[in-house]
Every structure is written in structure tokens, then in C-alpha cells.
């Protein structure tokens, strides 16, 4: 079941303490676990996932509408699709430490389901569905403000380009060049990283993001713009 350590982590990192811990347990319980433990009075996450999917779509839509007034309907729709796709939500589940807490049956465990992106997406949706039932939309928005929204603001979902790879290919076309990403700042609440991008020891750009990967992508994007303007 969900560990005490993880419950403490939720409170310390995100200020979340469930009033009804049964909802939290269900959000992390796969149907395979329920089938193998019929005597345990806990349900699986499927109904919470259904609710969480709708809650997240509404929350993200509301955020995009309020914070990106210059985008038209089509642009907002594409941006939302990039955010709520499987890769997006599964990535958030990993960043929040969800995989280790999922209750799986032995068969699913052996097939590597704990790392399956679609399952991690389901759990992220179920968690937000459980949080919505336990504490309402304000609590969901607070959680997303610490996890999802910083990445939206950093431009993580504006397109699917891998700027780090693009930059590497551009700079190393004539041979190896040393490219480094150094962490300058790191804070927990809200979670944020700031990195510097160095090429052959010279700082070219800086980037900020919810995690190190996102910050590096922003720094690489800015560096690409600089090099392409030359």
C-alpha cells in the first residue's frame, strides 16, 4: 500500500495531506492487485482515472485560457493536446515519484507494468481525480501549479522538438565539441531548475524549468536561436 514515507513526501513537497486516505490508496492500485488480494477492501484506480482525466482537461484548459490570451482556439487546442498526452502525464508521474507506490499484481509486475507509460498516465489522472474528490479543484490547481504549469510556462509543450539534439547536431557537424549543462539554481517549492549551457567552456545561454531536463531544453533552444542568427 502507499507508504508513510510517500505520504510525508506529498505533504512536504506539495502540501497535500489526504483527509480520506482510501482515495489515495485506490489511486495507486491496479486492478491486477485487487484481483490477487480479494480480502483487502480497496478498489482499483479506474473510476478515479475517468474522473481525473476530465478534471485535468478542465484545469489545464482554464490555465491556458487565462495565461495565453494571444493564442487562438486552434493553438490552444494543440497546446493542450501536447500537455495531456501520454508522454506528458507519464513524465509528471515519474517526476512526482509515483511509480514506486503503485500496487500491482505479480503478473503485471513481471511484465514491467510499473514503467509502462500508459499505466503511469492512468495513475497521474487517478491521483488528481482522488485529490479533486478529497479537497476540490483548488487543491488540484495548487498541485498542478507546482508540477505541470511551470513546464507549460517554460515552453516545454509548444512543440515536440528535441532542442538539445538539434544543437548538438548543429555544433558538431565538423567534429566533436564540448557541450555542458550546469545547474545554477534549484528550488523545491515551487520546483524549479536554472541551468547554464556552456560550449567549450563559454556560457552561451541559460534556461529555467520545472526539472533539469526542461531547463536544459530551454537553454538549448535559446542557444539555437543565437547560433542561427549569426
Automatic annotation (TrEMBL):
GO terms for molecular function: double-stranded RNA binding; metal ion binding; ribonuclease III activity; rRNA binding. Mg(2+) binds at residues 49, 122, 125. SUPFAM superfamilies: dsRNA-binding domain-like, RNase III domain-like. Its EC number is 3.1.26.3. The keyword Manganese does not apply. GO terms for cellular component: cytoplasm. Residues 162-229 form the DRBM domain. One of its GO terms (biological process) is tRNA processing. Homodimer. This is Ribonuclease 3.
